[in-house]
Amino acid sequence: MKKIFLNLGRQPLANSFLKDISKKTIKREFFYNLKICFDTSNFLVSIQRPVNPKKQYTNEYAHRASESQTMRTAFKNIAFNLKKKFRPSTILEIGSNDGVFLKNFNPKKVIAVEPCKNLANITKKKFKTYPEFWNLKLSKKITKNKQRKIDLVFSANTISHIPNLKESLSSLYNVLSENGVIVIEDPSLLSILKNNSYDQFYDEHVYVFSAIAIKCLVKDYNLRLFDVDKISTHGGSLRYYICKNTAKYKSTSKLKKYLETEKKNNLNKFETYKKFSNRVKKSKKNLYELFKKIKRQNKKIISYGATYKSTTVFNYCKIDNKIFDYVTDTTKNKQGKFTPGTHIPIISPERGINETVDYAFLGAWNFKKEILKKEKERIKSGLKFITHVPYPRII
Ligand code: TYD
Question: What is the DSSP string of 348-377?
Fold first, then answer.
């Protein structure tokens, strides 16, 4: 049974940055109700009513995975490790973005799936690319064109975005070779609960997975979870290793231990989520009060990184351009636009990060290390950072 535990209110699409804030544009802005629920039968956490993916993954999709040094290094390392461990002769990536993972493989061995046409246009120059949504029809098309099935399916921050999880899983089974491996990376539910990072809930994150939920879910599709890695990307993610029931891989002791950790933290109980919801309400109140206090001192606050996560924070906490003068972001595509729902201007760091800024809210808190290192000199000369993770404070 699905039970709602968190209501993050009326939200726009997290990546629907506005080109202008004319009355006409604002009137057309799309909003939906962001309510999060827990399924007591399979431990799955999900958005109660997901948005239609056709509204989300358009040819204006802004996120470029290769913009960040942290992500470039992470994808290079995992590509190297997967090659060494499984020696795949065919590799399929679902949600290949701008090819940041695939570029580490021989293009002849690789297939990319990416429904955002602007991104698919980048990878198709080098790799066989299907500019389509991941579903059963596409999985059949791919295996029909291939002599062999796929040895390695990789998908980072994508499977959790697809509302029809059942079809996603049966499509994965469909393309997989007998000893093939599916490697899925997505934000970890346990990290979210520990960090109080409720901003991982936005329209694209239809599901937030845990190992106990994945273990339970894949069983219905003759698949088996056999290993898990804890990774630091996106503020704490999990990498799941899944194979066919009949494949040669044995369950690892690492997986057993991690499943126990999740159970110890009561991820299988609804009560845990109710407590989290109370912490989120407190975080909202305290963050807003912190900003108000700083504003009363006539200080200038900006936000650092126009992240999708910030869309949830700004709209839930009712933070707008009365608090922030602007948001800075390195992504060219976002610069010159306005934040979804709250309409704060986005500018480049070169223009926006200077001695007039007193405080910067870490919208991109998942890159805290990289950012604090980059802004070392500014911090020395007085710039202060604010974060809401795991609780609102000046760093
Ligand atoms: P991302 O981590 O993808 O978060 P989300 O999925 O919530 O959008 O986005 C990070 C954003 O932060 C991206 O737009 C680039 C920006 N950014 C900066 O502006 N400066 C930086 O130094 C870093 C690391 C990121």
Answer: -HHHH-STT--EEEETTGGGHHHHHHHTHH
Here the CATH number for the domain that contains residue 256 is 3.40.50.150
User: 383 by DSSP, 3-state: which?
Assistant: coil
Can you say how many angstroms the Cα of residue 319 is from the centroid of all Cα atoms in its chain? 22
Query: Is residue 204 domain-shared with residue 113, that is, in the same domain?
Result: yes
Helix H or strand E segment including 215:
helix 211-219
Residues 6+ positions from 87 with CB-CB distance below 8 Å = 151
Q: What is the CATH number of the domain that holds 383?
A: 3.40.50.720
Residue 222 near residue 243 (C-beta atoms within 8 A): no
Domains: count for the chain: 2
Q: Which atom in ligand 1 lies closest to the alpha carbon of residue 370?
A: 24
Q: CA-to-CA distance for 129 and 131, rounded, in angstroms?
A: 6
- In this structure, the answer to whether residues 54 and 29 fall within a common structural domain is no
144: which residues sit within 8 A by CB, 6+ positions away?
none
The pLDDT of residue 70 is 84
Which range of residues forms the domain containing residue 291?
2-37+271-394
Give 123's pLDDT tier (boundaries 50, 70, 90).
Answer: very high
pLDDT at position 65 is 86
| Cα of 311 from ligand 1 centre, angstroms | 12
Question: Over 80: is that where the pLDDT of 266 sits?
Answer: yes
Atom of ligand 1 nearest to the CA of 367: 24
Q: What is the pLDDT of residue 67?
A: 82
Residues with CB under 6 A from ligand 1: 63, 67-68, 305-309, 328-331, 334, 364, 366-367, 370-371, 374
Mean per-residue pLDDT of the chain: 96
